[in-house]
Write a structure and sequence with these properties.
Layout: H1 6-24, H2 30-41, H3 65-71, H4 83-92, E1 113-116, H5 123-140, E2 148-151, H6 155-171, E3 180-183, H7 204-209, E4 214-217, H8 219-227, H9 232-236, E5 244-247, H10 255-275, E6 283-288, H11 295-309, E7 318-320, H12 326-343, E8 351-353, H13 359-370, H14 378-389, E9 390-392, H15 398-404, H16 429-442, E10 501-502, E11 512-513
Parallel strand pairs: 1-6, 1-7, 2-4, 2-5, 3-4, 5-6
Antiparallel strand pairs: 8-9, 10-11
Helix pairs in contact: 1-16, 4-5, 8-10, 13-14
Length: 549
């Protein structure tokens, strides 16, 4: 699991970028090369700063998990909703026991909801579990048609949520029998007629013939569904049963795209009202990332939702995130620390948290453990971090006192591997990077002494004995080229085959081609419009007695 450590991933990424830049940019001036090297590798003023770590308090849990399970009885076992999820359940539930207005079937009508919380807060679960709970309840009551229409801004999000929904429908017994479909341009290439553990229904004829309980699509495909006459039966079967209109990633629908989506949702409502007048109960639901803090951000989100959905939405529809207070978060740790301090009061020096731990001290303690290529020792890393964050009475190390009370003793940090010498600075940057990569691959510190390219030395050819006056033929080093007429680029100027080499007798200057072994040369044929072709002068026109022909 050490490959997943963010610090090591950041170090590997930094090293890869440096090697790429130094290989692509070759600088001959040593001063400019030194400036580039400092710009790439300096920890304080270089291009790479960080990695940065952001710590935030966890989300607050719901006050009563049993109450949330009463609102959504089909919640998976062990699921404990956050406070904002419990608030969304209370607004989106259709349980007949919940207070509120009811429809013709006796189900409670859900209320408009806008969930705007941070990343990883479970925004999808805020609407998905109430939607599936209502679909299962309506299925038992014999109500057909689409119950929820979920729009995504991109097909990638739709495909990801489709796999997640397929897993829920096939694994949870409470959702057995429910159907869901994915209606996008990409999904139509591989049609599926049933819900499996990996995919939803994607066959368009199947979707038209039997309306699914949940339909996942994007706004462009929804436009096609509203235009085509062949898709009219889908809306006729779902006009009275459609309860949820969900827009995921609501903050992306701005500008011209938001205008198109707003007009599209108004067309959808007109179509449903025309099919089932007086029986349409379409509830707008949106999930969005946080756009700010305070009442102003909630008011801006509310105005934006009213503009896009085209309906009146109450001020209590916006649900924001709630995080645990700092004192509440650290209270359990303080209680445990106080208990241990009371038990070990007479055993020796006591531990107390450091008031202002220095960042440089923490970096010095952590860097040897997280250096790429070194084994990770979690116990030693914990002990050295403990020495920075805690202080002990009497000048002893906090890890030593903690070891006396049950924590493993601190071991010295592992030594990083010895750094291999870099090639001289005056060499081109691409050759230096090549040398570093080769040394890292072979693990030989002395490899740079054998040359930067690290190619094996060429074997010297045996010296010829040119004592005989008889020329000796040597084998051809290469195969003869193709004929001129078969060359892919057309006829060439020199289309003669390669000559075998012969060695001169004593006193010569090396090998020479054996021209006496060549066949006679053919005349060179140039094209009609070749620049070297000599053009013959045109003859003067001859006069015919009967006129020019």
């Amino acid at each position: 699991m050490t490959e997943l450590l963010p610090t090591r991933q950041a170090a590997d990424l930094r090293r890869a970028v440096i090697d790429y830049v130094t290989t692509a940019i070759s600088l001959a001036d040593p001063s400019v090369a030194s400036a580039l090297d400092a710009f790439l590798t300096d920890e304080r003023s270089g291009i790479f700063l960080g990695p940065y770590l952001r710590t935030r308090l966890p989300f607050a849990g719901g006050s009563d998990a049993a109450a949330a399970r009463e609102l959504v009885p089909s919640l998976p076992g062990g699921f404990e909703p956050y406070a904002h999820q419990a608030a969304a359940f209370s607004r989106l539930t259709t349980s007949p026991e919940a207070p509120g207005e009811q429809d013709e079937a006796g189900f409670r009508l859900p209320q408009p909801t806008i969930v705007t919380t941070g990343t990883g807060s479970g925004k999808t679960e805020s609407f998905l579990y109430p939607v599936l709970d209502h679909a299962a309840r309506a299925k038992k009551a014999g109500i057909g048609g689409i119950k929820a229409l979920i729009l995504y801004p991109m097909n990638a999000l739709a495909n990801d949520q489709a796999g997640r929904l397929a897993k829920l429908l096939t694994e949870k017994p409470a959702y057995q029998g429910l159907t869901a479909a994915l209606y996008t341009g990409e999904a139509s290439h591989e049609p599926s007629t049933v819900v499996t553990a990996d995919s939803l229904i994607t066959d368009r004829e199947m979707i038209r013939g039997s309306a699914p309980d949940v339909l996942l699509t994007n706004y462009k495909m929804l436009d096609q569904l509203l235009l085509r006459r062949a898709d009219r039966p889908l809306w006729e079967a779902s006009a009275a049963s459609l309860r949820y209109l969900v827009l995921d990633e609501f903050h992306t629908y701005d500008g011209a795209q938001g205008t198109d989506v707003g007009m599209l949702l108004r067309r959808l409502r007109l179509v449903l009202d025309q099919i089932a007048p007086g029986r349409v109960h379409l509830t707008p639901v949106a999930t969005s990332a946080t756009l700010g803090d305070g009442a102003d951000a909630a008011a801006a989100m509310l105005d934006f939702a009213r503009t896009v959905f085209g309906t009146d939405i109450g001020e209590d529809a916006v649900i924001t995130e709630t995080r645990v207070d700092l004192d509440e978060f650290v209270r359990p740790s303080r209680e445990v620390t106080a208990d241990h301090a009371g038990e070990a009061a007479g055993e020796g020096p006591s531990l107390s948290p450091a008031q202002f731990p220095a960042a440089a001290s923490m970096a010095t303690a952590v860097r040897p453990h997280l250096e790429p290529g070194t084994p990770l020792d979690a116990e030693a890393l914990t002990a050295h971090v403990l020495d920075v964050l805690w202080t002990a009475d009497g000048g002893e190390r906090a890890s030593t006192i903690a070891a006396q009370r049950g924590l493993p003793p601190a071991r010295p940090p592992p030594r990083p591997p010895p750094r291999r010498p870099d090639p001289p600075r005056d060499l081109p940057r691409h050759r230096a990077a090549r040398a570093r990569r080769h040394r890292a691959a072979v693990g030989d510190p002395a490899a740079h002494r054998r040359g930067l390219h690290h190619r094996p030395a060429r074997r010297a050819l045996p010296r010829a004995r040119p004592r005989s006056s008889t020329p000796k033929l040597l084998p051809e080093p290469r195969s003869a080229p193709v004929a001129a007429r078969d060359h892919p680029r057309g006829p060439r100027r020199d289309h003669r085959p390669r000559l075998p080499l012969v060695r001169r007798a004593r006193g010569g200057r090396g090998p020479r081609p054996a021209r006496h072994l060549l066949p006679p040369l053919r005349p060179l044929r140039l094209g009609r419009h070749h620049p070297r072709r000599r053009r013959r002068p045109r003859p003067a026109p001859r006069h015919h007695p009967q006129g020019r022909r």
